[in-house]
């Protein structure tokens, strides 16, 4: 049996091509607006360069799926207005947010990086759950 509290408090942690991506989601009730019909979630991302070369983040691609199976894809340059450059062992942390129109959903995706020699690297962002506390009491995943 899956414990909902574990899902709510867990994020994702994955290493691809020498880039470690850790994500920690959190429900943010203060963003709720009566009648809005959306739930808001913050997510903190820690990007760590575990490779032996310099990399620069170029773009992001997010896949957001609500509990009804509706999928939204978000692409764009950088993250929160930044294009972090990371030497071996360096980390970059940022927090953003995501509204969804159901009480739970998932997010996953990828970042695109470039190395000094022009090689493009893809770093996966592992799937993590967005679950409101109201739904956590009722969901049996």
List key phrases describing it.
141 residues, mainly beta, Immunoglobulin-like, five-stranded antiparallel beta sheet, four-stranded antiparallel beta sheet, 7% helix, disordered N terminus
Low-confidence stretches: 1-5
Helix proportion: under 10%
SSE pattern, N- to C-terminal: HEEEEEEEEEH
Termini gap: 8 Å
Cα shape:
elongated
Sheet with most strands: 5 strands, antiparallel
**Average pLDDT number:** 89
Briefly note the structural class of the backbone. Answer: mainly beta
Give me the CATH superfamily. ApaG domain
Give me the number of helical elements.
2
What's the architecture, going by CATH? Answer: Sandwich
Radius of gyration: 16 Å
* Content of β-strand: over 45%
Q: CATH fold name, please? A: Immunoglobulin-like
In short:
With 141 residues, the protein is mainly beta.
Task: Explain what you see.
The protein is mainly beta and 141 residues long. It contains two helices and nine strands, in the order αβββββββββα.
Sequence-ordered SSE layout with sheet pairings:
Layout: H1 4-9, E1 12-16, E2 19-27, E3 39-49, E4 55-66, E5 71-77, E6 85-86, E7 91-100, E8 104-115, E9 120-131, H2 133-136
Antiparallel strand pairs: 1-2, 2-3, 3-7, 4-5, 4-6, 4-8, 8-9
């Amino acid at each position: 049996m899956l414990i909902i509290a574990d899902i709510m408090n867990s994020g994702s942690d994955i290493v691809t091509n020498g880039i470690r991506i850790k994500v920690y989601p959190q429900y943010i009730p203060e963003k709720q607006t009566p009648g809005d019909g959306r739930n808001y979630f913050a997510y903190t991302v820690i990007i760590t360069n575990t490779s032996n070369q310099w990399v620069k983040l170029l773009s992001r691609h997010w896949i957001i799926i609500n509990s009804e199976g509706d999928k939204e894809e978000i692409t764009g340059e950088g993250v929160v207005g930044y294009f972090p450059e990371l030497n071996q062992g360096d980390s970059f942390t940022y927090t953003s947010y995501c509204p969804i129109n159901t009480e739970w959903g998932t997010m996953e995706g990828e970042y695109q990086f470039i190395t000094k020699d022009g090689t493009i690297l893809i770093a996966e962002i592992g799937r993590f759950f967005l679950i409101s506390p109201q739904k956590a009491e009722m969901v049996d995943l």
